[in-house]
Amino acid sequence: MVGLALAAAAGVAAIGLIDAQMRGAGSRTRTGPNRRSAAEHEPEVERSITIEDVPADELYRRWRDPETLRRIMAPFADVQPTGDGQTRWSAGPDLGSWDMRLADDQPGEFMRWEAQGERALIREASVRFRPAAGNRGTVVVLRASLDPPGGMLGRIATQMLGNTVPAALASKSLHYFKALVQTGEIPTTERQPAARPDPR
Amino acid sequence: MRALIWNGVNDLRVETVKDPEIVNPRDCILRVTMSTTCGSDLHFIDGYIPTMKAGDVIGHEFMGVVEDVGPEVKKVKKGDRVVVPSFITCGQCWYCKNKLYSLCDNTHPKPELQEPIFGYPTAGIYGYTHAFGGYAGAHAQYVRVPFADNDCFKVPDGLPDEQVLFLSDAAPTGYMGADFCNIQPGGVGLMAQKSAFLMGAERVIGIDRLPERLQMAREHVGSETINYEEVDSVLEMLKEMTGGRGPDACIDAVGMEAHGTGLQYAYDRAKQLMYMHTDRGQALSEAILACRKGGTLSILGVYGVMDKFPIGAIMNKGLTVRTAQQHGQAYMDRLLDHAQKGELNPSFLATHRFSLEDAPHGYAMFKHKEDGCVRSVFIP
Fold first, then answer.
1. Residue B24 to residue A144: CA distance in whole angstroms
2. What is the 8-class DSSP label of residue B219?
3. Where do the structural domains in chain A lie, given as residue ranges?
4. Mind listing the domains of chain B with CATH numbers?
């Protein structure tokens, strides 16, 4: 799901950029995360953040809260719960909308979602919570499988995505999540003064 | 409201923009009573730091009176007269809890712009490029201050604005630089020299090329001084002044637009003009050479990307390098205490006063050091 958010956020100038930030799904255990994928593989993106002083159970609970998901994904897509563990992702007229369903749920540790239907930029996404080494808090690992760049949605994404690659956007969602759970708010430049139409 | 706007390289204008508003629950709105120029602003005004957007309100060193507070602000109240460090900090992340405030994890709205450059995002800054958050700056009638309870420091009665203003950035930056040296050179350099004495340094030597700044260092700080344009070699001069041993600690308060003399300066300047690198770092290179073996090098000047750096001298001489953007929140109580006791009065930095409407002229004088300008101060 994040990947969709990512794609919808409009970030990639060239598919090569996306490609460089992703890795082949089949080879990740051998090559580590975020390696360049072979063209025929479904690309994946993975990013992590360490959050101190908030228990893993609390992080899990906050991530399950539809309001949290809506806020940390807001720059990229509108995410609304539709019941039965499903969420509706709306990423603008070009990238479209689709549903994702919670497919695996291990309280305090792991959640995984799958896209419903064929037209979805994010095929699958997961978030895992695990203890950081040395009592440094909890590591939150966000992973998403994207529609292959050669696919129709991938081509649209290429045109839409500006300069920001999906991995950077996954990282941004994690930073927003951390800020929200640690401070109660997400840093923003919305509605600030500036001498231009969009002040952000 | 009226605000100083960056419209492009070397194009500053005062324009009318909408007032800031409370956006997040821990925000406050400050009515700015005084703000000042910083040498680091010149880097993006001159176009050496990218990610400015036309229309940005600039300015990150300021003080004011609280006009409005968000629903989750507990300590700060309307009417409080406060000074605000230039870095925005949450007070709750690991970095804030360890007093490394300018490294705060939770105040950068656009981490995707900074992670490719530095690997990890830093704290956000007011009015200082979108790579540093893109927040509206404080050369304006009003400014939004996020995390008001953490970042607004109440000013004791009796201290005039000019004495407090520089506690926003120049003073804590200099103080931190001296602190890094375990005491054992513009505005930041003078503050670093003053701070070194406050911490017990026996001798402080200020190096500059501007006679008026060297005079300030002698008269307001009590430093010895070197005008590097009047000596053949700063290194030799420092060795002579320290009995061949070298200074225990060297502080670079210059940064990426250092001036200098000789071939290295000409080479760096040419490369920077062609945007082949953003930094010319002659002051830093000289500090590395001049510092005694096993000494401490404290870097306060702001750098972007430098492609040649004398790491061999650092390594073989066993130097300790300490760096940071200012952790102002960590020093503010001590600085206000020094100010109240009359030990610290940075108001001598405020050589030129302007109305906010004349801010572009104030920046031009500051940039070209006209009429002995050390800092321009703006009063909205």
1. 30
2. I
3. 2-183
4. 2-169+326-379 (3.90.180.10), 170-323 (3.40.50.720)
Helices (H), A9-151: 15-21, 28-31, 56-64, 66-73, 92-95
CA-based nearest residue to A124, from A106, A107, A158, A100: A100
Q: What is the pLDDT of residue A37?
A: 43
How does pLDDT run across A70-107, given as a tens digit for each residue?
Answer: 999 887 789 999 987 799 998 777 777 889 999 999 99
* Tally of helices (H runs) and strands (E runs) in chain A: 8, 8
User: pLDDT for B237-271, tens place per residue?
Assistant: 888 888 888 888 888 877 766 666 665 666 666 55
| B102 touches B327 (CB < 8 A) | yes
Q: Is the pLDDT of residue A13 over 80?
A: no
Please answer yes or no on whether A189 and B121 come within 8 Å at the CB atom: no
Contacts of B197 (CB under 8 A, 6+ apart): B204, B221, B222
Specify whether domain A2-183 bears CATH 3.40.630.30: no
Output the pTM of the full model. Answer: 0.82
Residue B236 CA to its chain's centroid (Å): 29
Q: Which residues in chain A touch residue B93, judged by CB atoms under 8 angstroms apart?
A: 52, 178, 182-183
A189–B136: do the CB atoms touch at under 8 Å?
Answer: yes
Answer whether A183 sits within 8 Å of B90, measured CB to CB: yes
Measuring CA to CA, which residue among B163, B153, B207 is closest to residue B185? B207
* 3-class DSSP assignment, residue B113: helix
- What three-state secondary structure class fits A183? helix
What would the mean pLDDT of B50-61 be, rounded to a whole number? 96
From CA B165, how far away is CA B375, in angstroms rounded?
11
Side-chain-facing half-sphere of B26: CA atoms under 13 Å: 24
Tokens of B128: 């200082």
Minimal-distance CA residue of chain B relative to A195: B55
**pLDDT at residue A43 is higher than 60:** yes
Whether pLDDT at B299 is above 50: yes
